[in-house]
Design brief:
Radius of gyration: 16 Å
Distance between the termini: 8 Å
Strand content: 5-15%
Largest sheet: 7 strands, parallel
CATH architecture: 3-Layer(aba) Sandwich
Order of helices and strands: EHEHEHEHEHEHEHHH
Shape: globular
Bound molecules: adenosine-5'-diphosphate, magnesium ion
Number of strands: 7
CATH class: Alpha Beta
Length: 212
């Protein structure tokens, strides 16, 4: 049975699509049977997947679909027996579709850029996950190389009793360049720091999969 992860965060630009695509590529590279579902009407990942068709042998095998929000539960049901991991990218702002994806998931992965504004905006997503009784894991994204902000935000999250993943992603141009080529950083630049970070994030996430 697949481990279903909804990547959700009401704030646009937090890194939902980036994390979903990169985790999917990393899991695929480890031989996991991965499905990636784009449930955002902006269709960011559908564009990414379109580029992927031209990326050749560097692109690992993954199942891809872009179901409308209301079709997400049926899409997950169809995929869950034949896959190890299902990643759901979700829209910002649209609580109805985000709620459906969260309900279908075993875990809600919340990317968060370490800034007060981003932290405040996360409350709505956490409320949604709480209302659906789904566990949450927060991953800090675009962590600057210097400064204390990330540690301050991490402390505030821990004070709220939230699960904060030790694995974080730095602010790295490699994410955008791999994305433009329809690849994850583990495929485009497997020896890069970005790739190392994504592999660590994938491992941390796997550790939170329910035992069945
Ligand atoms: N760790 C990162 N380092 C550098 N750029 C990033 C990183 N994560 C995301 N980005 C960039 O930020 C922008 C928004 O990311 P995206 O994944 O589309 O956010 P969302 O799906 O939450 O709206 C994109 O241009 C993306 O390339
Ligand atoms: Mg997106």
């Amino acid at each position: 049975m697949a481990f279903i992860v909804a990547v959700a965060q009401r704030k646009g630009g937090a890194g939902k699509s980036t994390l979903a695509a990169n985790l999917a590529a990393a899991f695929a590279g480890q031989g996991e049977r991965v499905a990636l579902l784009d449930t955002d009407p902006q269709k960011t990942l559908s564009h990414w997947h379109g580029e992927r068709a031209r990326a050749g042998s560097r692109a690992g095998l993954l199942a891809f679909d872009a179901p409308a929000g209301w079709r997400v539960p049926a899409a997950c049901d169809k995929l869950r027996r034949s896959h190890d991991v299902i990643l759901l990218d979700t829209p910002p702002h649209d609580d109805t579709d985000a709620r459906i994806a969260i309900r279908a998931a075993d875990l809600v992965l919340v990317p968060l850029q370490p800034s007060p504004a981003d932290l405040w905006a996360t409350g709505a997503t956490l409320d949604l996950a709480r209302a659906e009784r789904r566990p949450v894991a927060v991953a800090l994204n675009r962590v600057p190389a210097q400064g204390k902000l990330a540690e301050q935000v991490a402390q505030q999250l821990r004070a709220q009793g939230l699960t904060l993943l030790d694995a974080t992603l730095g602010n790295r141009t490699g994410f955008a360049s791999a994305f433009a080529a329809g690849l994850g950083v583990t495929e485009a630049a497997p020896r890069s720091l970005a790739a190392e970070e994504v592999r660590a994030l994938a491992a941390a996430l796997k550790g939170l999969a329910p035992r069945r």
